[in-house]
Amino acid sequence: MVSLAALGLGLLATVFDSSSLVAAEVIRAGDRVSQANAVTEEGDVAEGADPLMGREVRRTVYVGQPITANNTREPMIVKRNQTVSVKYISGALEITTTGRAMGDAAANETVTVLNQESRQLVQGVVQESGWVLAQ
Known about the structure:
By secondary structure, the chain is mainly β. It has one helix and twelve strands, in the order αββββββββββββ.
């Protein structure tokens, strides 16, 4: 018997794979897919509800090439060498400091950060607003 979770993941994969967006102009690596640079295969304006809208392309996509889930990713919130706020939270205790990101990361991804005060490397999870929750 197929579980509902597996069925839901299968439907999500179908939605991502069934997208028929193509590049209307050259989309450089790191740029986001938008209505300005993507159209449907039929040449119509892409809808804002498309699941690929707002995603970041991994490699340059040239005019007429398909835009897929495989050649896009969630937008990077933290970039390498960017100064970020790092928070350690345990119960009522909250410690905040600054650090330098050692790599790129999207929301809810792990990133290594160099604590600028102690010069120690710490691992943390990037939050939607751009700060890092140390583990």
